[in-house]
From TrEMBL:
Region Disordered, residue ranges: 414-435
Annotated Gene Ontology cellular component terms: plasma membrane
This protein's record includes keyword Cell membrane: yes
Provenance organism: Micromonospora chokoriensis
Localization, UniProt: Cell membrane
Keywords for the protein's UniProt record, in alphabetical order: Cell membrane, Membrane, Transmembrane, Transmembrane helix
Protein name: Membrane protein involved in the export of O-antigen and teichoic acid
Main location: membrane
Amino acid sequence: MIRRLLSLVPPGTVAVGAGLALLGLASYVHLAVAGHSLTEADYSSLSVLWSIVFTLGIGLFMPVEQEVARLVAARHSQGLPPGPVLARGAVLAAGLLAAMVALIIAFRGMLADRLFDGDGTMVTVLIGSLAGLAVAHTTRGVLSGLQLFPWYGTQLGIDGGLRIVLVAVLGLTGVTNPVWFGAVLVVAPVAGVILTAPPVLRAIGGGTPLAWAPLLRGLGLLIVSSLLAQVVVNIGVINVKVLDPSDVATAGALLSALVLVRIPLFVFASLQASLLPGLATTATTGDLAGFHSLLRRALGIVTALGLTGAVGAVLLGPWLVQTLFDAPGVLGHGDFAWLAVATLAYLWAMVLGQALLALDRHRAQALAWAVGVAALIVATLAPVTTALRVELGYAVGSVVVAATMAVLLRNRTPRSAPTHTPPLEAVTPGVTGGP
């Protein structure tokens, strides 16, 4: 089954997979060193920063990367320069970033007091981290669209490798300020962009200005889906801080636990880029049997990944988070069971979401994520402990998203070839640095 999926991967994806693996490893090293270096309160602040950065960063700028990659690839196949796409993509990313920065500045005091124990510097780090991701995702879209996969993988690898080096230095020198551990999220992606800038700089200029319509068509729904998906997977840590600001132990322990149980998500990211083109091709040609076969195989793979990860997490999770991250022993085997169930359901939702996109049903995907977030909110209001509330929210939200997508797919599976064009093959991993 895995060979079938890997056969759909565009040339050069191995390089991207290697960079992605290093970036994933960096996440574990980063949090492990921080967990052993910071107090519970400071690690809690870093955990909240981490969750916000990757919720907003991936949610907003991954769709920009995907659309830039799609349009650059289309123009490249026609012998047209990528410069106009890069120009529009950069303006769009800058606009999204400016809107977020304006909101953050407007509520700076409240954010500092409520989420970072009054430390306004962490809010500044938050802004810098979002800016770094905005630049990184935009340039990755160009590299991906031009099929410069070694450069793409190199940028990911530099980001991850530099994170490991920087946090190692912080740990060895005895730094105990969470601001410095947060600043790594600013420096590393920017350095990756600078060191892989040559092919991007060569793409600047050339050609007539690109109309906005091709870039914006469908982008709004992609951003909605992407943001809601990141809310489901990352909001738990933020919710702990909002529901009980004094419970610093649970916030830090929960992020450490989530990093462990989400290992299957990193594995799935290496298959995600090949899954959508494969599903879209079978849908476009009217190969209903092939569409369902590939979808079942993908669900089988992620189920195996999720169950394997779940067994390890439930059995060893409480010990691992204390050993690797020096996390407080506030989470037990039952907590890890809820998180593992949620991650398995989230994997199902990722696969089913790809199937909806292959059928050009962006609205259906966005609707499913919206229903899931609503279910998450309801579950989070349950009259139980803070930890269980956020665990239930993650689990219920993920299950509802997957179930809604399954119903939408079952009700409107294509009986003949759709009229849309299958998405161009572009490497766009769905997990790029967050847990």
